[in-house]
Amino acid sequence: MTCIFCSIARGETHSYIIYEDELNMVFLDIYPVSKGHLLVIPREHYESIHDTPYKLLARTWFLSSILGRIYRVEFDAPGVNIVTNSGGAAGQVIFHFHVHVIPRWGRYGGFWSGRHRLTEDEAREVIDMWRDKTGIIIDALNNI
Ligand code: 5GP
Ligand code: ZN
């Protein structure tokens, strides 16, 4: 079985990468609901929260929270959603554990409203926004 997120983690499928280290990878969702919609994954393949080892689960959620905090504190986003869909019944489509980090820049119009195909220009803008934030992420990760 081929897994698209494994392929992204191996660098075989293109993605716009915001941050990566030996355990995790953060890249842009190709159908963002808002500018800066991120996906946080463990590099290793696990289906969802039920089979991801606790340490990796904790690390992935912590990293997701750090990114959410950076949206609130550094980018002044008025809101952020940090969510995982676990199981088809919850809307999970890609069965490689991932956390959505969705910044909210304006009036809330419903969870998935505003969905669109990611454009090259939008991706470049978000990559630029995050370019100098790697140090903050690493400092925070080292703080627990
Ligand atoms: P979920 O499984 O939580 O419902 O959502 C999977 C997410 O992955 C969706 O938001 C979808 O837009 C995103 N996605 C699906 N395929 C790809 C892909 O090939 N590349 C990227 N960057 N995102 C993808
Ligand atoms: Zn996978």
Give the helices and strands, then pairings:
Blueprint: H1 4-9, E1 17-20, E2 24-28, E3 38-42, H2 54-73, E4 79-83, E5 99-104, H3 120-130, H4 134-141
Antiparallel strand pairs: 1-2, 2-3, 3-5, 4-5
The site of zinc ion has 5 residues, from helix 1.
List keywords for this structure.
144 residues; alpha+beta; HIT family, subunit A; five-stranded antiparallel sheet; 4 helices; 17% strand; globular; binds guanosine-5'-monophosphate; binds zinc ion
Which hetero compounds are present in the coordinates? guanosine-5'-monophosphate, zinc ion
Q: How many individual β-strands?
A: 5
Report the principal-axis shape.
globular
Task: List segments where confidence is low: pLDDT < 50 over at least 5 consecutive residues.
Answer: none
Task: Provide the residue-averaged pLDDT.
Answer: 97
| Count of individual helical segments | 4
Helical content class: 25-40%
Quick take:
This protein is an alpha+beta fold and 144 residues long. 31% of the residues lie in helices and 17% in strands. The chain has one domain (4-142): HIT-like (HIT family, subunit A), CATH 3.30.428.10.
